Amino acid sequence: MNFKIEIPEDKILISKGDLRAVLKEMMEEIKAEKDDKDIMTIKQAAEFLKVSVPTIRKLIDSNDIPYFQRGQVIRLNRGAVKAWIQKNSGEHTPKVNNL
Hints:
Blueprint: H1 16-37, E1 39-40, H2 42-49, H3 53-61, E2 68-70, E3 73-77, H4 78-88
Antiparallel strand pairs: 1-3, 2-3
Helix pairs in contact: 2-3
């Protein structure tokens, strides 16, 4: 018994696992690209972090939050701010006393 499978030339075969890996890699690249290009003003950073503009200015003055400055203009990179949040997110968790 001989079987012949015909696949149109514009189609490719890929395993589900390989497809999943390729899609995951593509999504990570897209996310990294978006984060790297997303530059915020101080006001936008305050809205993003849900804090006041003076709070952002204090964080900048004390070099607690990542930012960059070109002349008088201060900007924050959304990806860097997200990484800063993740790095510092565990610092203020309350300790639970064991009874």
